[in-house]
Each structure stands twice: as C-alpha cells, then as structure tokens.
Predict the structure of Response regulator transcription factor.
Amino acid sequence: MPEAIRLLLVDDEWLVRAGLRTMLSGDPDIEIVGEAADGDGIAELVAKTGATVVLMDIRMPGVNGLTAAERLCALPSPPHVVMLTTFDADDLVVAALRAGASGFLLKDTPPADLVAALHAVVAGDPILSPQVTRRLIEQVTEPDRDARSATATRQIADLTPGEQRVAVAVAQGLSNADIARELFVTVATVKSHISHILDKLALTNRVQIALLVHDAGVQRT
C-alpha cells in the first residue's frame, strides 16, 4: 500500500494552489493539510500541520522556495521537500537540491505523474529523471567548482567500494531494485549501503548523493 502523505502546498499564486489541490485531492492517500503563499514561517506551519511532504514553488516574493527549503531541511525531522518550477534548467533548482530538497517537478507535470512522484519521494525513490538531472548539472557553472570537486573526492574516498558503486548507481537515477540487479546484490543490501552513505557523509537524501558523485567526477566502472 502507498504510504499516506500529509501534504503542504506553498505557492504565491492562489490559482496554482487551487489547481494543485484539485489535481491531488482525488488520491485517497494524499491529505492536503495546509497552504501558504510564501516560505515565511514554513517550519512552524509544518510543525503545526504535521506535514510529511512540502510541495513548494521555488520562485516566490518574500521568503522564496530556496530559503524555505534550507530552513526545512535543517529541521531535526525534516519533511520531504519537492520544488515546483516553470523552468527545467532553473539555476535555483540545483541550489535547492544541494540544500536537501528531494527533487523538483515542472508546473506542467501531468496530474498522474505528479501523484506518482509524490508517492515515489515518500518511498525514498528519486523523482528526477537521469535526463533532467544531467541538464541541470551541466548548466551549473560555479566559481568554487575545483574546491567542491576536491571535497567531494575526499568524501567519496571515505566510502567502501560497495558503497561507492551504489552511490554511482544512485547518481545515474537508478531505483533500488535496478541497482540490486546491476550489482547482483539484494535490495536490502542496497538500502543498507544508501543508509550508510547518508550517515557517513551527513547527507539528507539520494539526490544529494547524486550531486556529490557528479562533483567528484566518479565514473561507473
């Protein structure tokens, strides 16, 4: 059975929130527990509503989605944060992912795909396709790329060979089941490796693992 989702909608446009509410209210496993027009006070609203997923516009007046995502992901028990954008190469998207957001969706995502994506992120599966991930990463030009690469390389070196292989597979956008088949291990082993990777590297989710692998320039062997 899909895991129940307590969803908080955050967008400065009332019509967008209304459209999302209409699209998502038909799923019996999704309960919309609150709405907000910007990211101000978002952590308090999550605590008040018990939201487990926050679906949030990345560009808003006042406190924008990036700042709100950083605040949410710094909580002791953060909700899953899924960003909304109208651009598939929005520079803020990568910054949000680095801050700990679980992924992002375009605002024109079909309703069925939106519902499936929310269930996927709660289940711990990536909601970024490999193609979209590559487009986002390729468009990022950072002045501290060399320093970031050196740091990421040191972090990857702290992983066991098995953990490194799993990390690279995660960066390719593979699901746990796909990784298990590719590496000839059980799904339980994959989950264990991912848990150890997150703990060792102080990361929040598998999207951050993918970005770290990219920064380190690790290729599949």
